[in-house]
Amino acid sequence: MEKLSYASENGTSAWSTYLQQIDRVAPYLGELARWIDTLRHPKRALIVDIPLQMDDGSIRHFEGYRVQHNLSRGPGKGGVRYHPNVDLNEVMALSAWMTIKCAAVNLPYGGAKGGIRCDPFALSEGELERLTRRYTSEIGIIIGPQKDIPAPDVGTNSKVMAWMMDTYSMNSGTTVTGVVTGKPVHLGGSLGREKATGRGVFITGREVARRAGIPVEGARVAVQGFGNVGSEAARLFSEAGAFVVAIQDHSATIANPDGINMAELTRWQQEHKQILGFPGAQKIDEEAFWRSEMDIFIPAALEGQITRERAERLSCKLVLEGANGPTYPEADDVLAERNIIVVPDVICNAGGVTVSYFEWVQDMASFFWSEEEINARMDKIMTDAMVHVWHKAEEKACSLRTAAYIVACERILMARKERGIYPG
Ligand SMILES: NC(=O)C1=CN([C@@H]2O[C@H](COP(=O)(O)OP(=O)(O)OC[C@H]3O[C@@H](n4cnc5c(N)ncnc54)[C@H](O)[C@@H]3O)[C@@H](O)[C@H]2O)C=CC1
Ligand SMILES: O=C(O)CCC(=O)C(=O)O
């Protein structure tokens, strides 16, 4: 295989993690493995320079990206991340995980992802809006409702999606609601989208826990990340009778062996934008989090969190990957040796993109569904996909991650093969 000149060869990078996951699935793909190099290359990657006039009158330049990893099964789909660590390597990996995820749950999409290297918390609302609008115009040449449909990810939300939709619409001369998902509900957004990713983590977790004989009621749950994904997953587990005993975010790690009150913490988080200072739990050391007594662990922050060393320390029976790419391949091996089940990101956190798909369909039809209908359809898609992957893992005697990759890669590579590659 040709080496990609733009991807760091650092073995701990997100792209390197993804490539190792692809290497692991290749032996299971039979004659389709002939096409697998298509997954080792992004189809298209755009780097944009975003000049921004700051509130104090100075000019700063930000680097933005949109990567379309694979479009064999449909338009690109994937979120937009605003974070100080965003770079091309990370966005490539995130876009590739979208390709696998959309195929694993059988949505008619390829994979894409975007981002801007910035600290959204250090920008005023006006700066954030100008940054978003300029970024949208710059990537406007490759996005569109039939080409590539962005959505929220870390550091972005429905307000950012509204600005993206408005900018794309202004540049097109007509309102195009279907260009992004995760919009506010009164602007063509879908009921249930905001909570969908956390809800999907709970649905897949509940299904796997039942099959593995791990009771959810009374389970001790630890969560890393208390944003969109982590907070909703924690709330649903707590509602199902589990005890959320430890939570870590960027500001602090807190613990309460009797269970943290989710309603109180949510109110605190909404007011303070972080868990630091919450009076209903004890502040503990950052690394002590990984030694907490727990039955279920939900990483719901960033990639590269579960290292080999942390995998050796974790006391849980089940890991539910709310985040994208939280586990290094060598940590996967340690968890497997220790009989800790990992529900991989590409299926566990697919509830968000599933409801994004519903949003896109509703925008196309200009006909909107009730929240009950959305949640019921999402529950069915996620549960069926999870059960399919579970059976594949039993059949092939492999991990749930490799099983999800087998299911997804067969769909993607079959599409690639049937489409053919000529004329170029
Ligand atoms: N928002 C969505 O619909 C989807 C998000 N995801 C993934 O879920 C993860 C979380 O995304 P969101 O909840 O949307 O983001 P968010 O921006 O709402 O929340 C991120 C959370 O991670 C915490 N965090 C950041 N750095 C940390 C660190 N070094 N240590 C501990 N905690 C840290 C933040 O404090 C915050 O609580 C990401 O990996 C994202 O790609 C996956 C599928 C869909
Ligand atoms: O809702 C979407 O379209 C994409 C969400 C996303 O970025 C993800 O699943 O990682």
Structural class assignment: alpha/beta
Distance between the termini: 19 Å
Spatial shape: globular
Small ligands present: 1,4-dihydronicotinamide adenine dinucleotide, 2-oxoglutaric acid
- Helix and strand pattern: HEEEHEHEHHEHEEHEEHEHEHHHH
The CATH class of the domain at 194-348 is Alpha Beta
Rg over CA atoms: 21 Å
CATH topology of the domain at 194-348: Rossmann fold
CATH architecture of the domain at 194-348: 3-Layer(aba) Sandwich
Give a quick account of the main beta sheet: strands, pairing sense, barrel closure. Answer: 7 strands, mixed
Total count of strands: 12
As residue ranges, the low-confidence spans are 5-9
GO molecular function, one term: glutamate dehydrogenase (NADP+) activity
Binding site for NAD(+): 197, 228
Domain Glutamate/phenylalanine/leucine/valine/L-tryptophan dehydrogenase C-terminal: 190-420
Active site: 113 (proton donor)
Feature tags:
7-stranded mixed beta sheet, 424 residues, 5-stranded mixed beta sheet, Rossmann fold, binds 1,4-dihydronicotinamide adenine dinucleotide, binds 2-oxoglutaric acid, 13 helices, alpha/beta
Give structural notes.
The active site is at 113 (proton donor). Belongs to the Glu/Leu/Phe/Val dehydrogenases family. Catalyzes the reversible oxidative deamination of glutamate to alpha-ketoglutarate and ammonia. The protein is α/β, with parallel strands linked by helices and 424 residues long. Among the domains are: 42-175, Rossmann fold, CATH 3.40.50.10860; 194-348, Rossmann fold (3-Layer(aba) Sandwich), CATH 3.40.50. 43% of the residues lie in helices and 16% in strands. The protein contains 13 helices and twelve strands. It has helices at 14-25, 88-104, 125-139, 158-172, 193-212, 228-239, 262-272, 308-313, 329-337, 345-348, 351-365, 371-396, 400-419; strands at residues 44-53, 59-70, 76-83, 111-117, 148-152, 220-224, 243-248, 253-255, 282-283, 296-299, 318-320, 341-343. Strands 9-8-7-6-10-11-12 form a seven-stranded mixed sheet. Strands 1-2-4-3-5 form a five-stranded mixed sheet. Strand 10, helix 8 (308-313) and strand 11 form a beta-alpha-beta unit. Helix 3 packs across helix 4 and helix 12 (371-396) packs across helix 13 (400-419). The longest helix is centred in the C-terminal third of the chain and has 26 residues, at 371-396. The relative contact order is 0.13. The model is unreliable at 5-9 (pLDDT under 50). Bound molecules: 1,4-dihydronicotinamide adenine dinucleotide (NAI) and 2-oxoglutaric acid (AKG). Residues 152-155, 197, 224-230, 248-250, 300-302, 322-324, 349, 352 line the site of 1,4-dihydronicotinamide adenine dinucleotide.
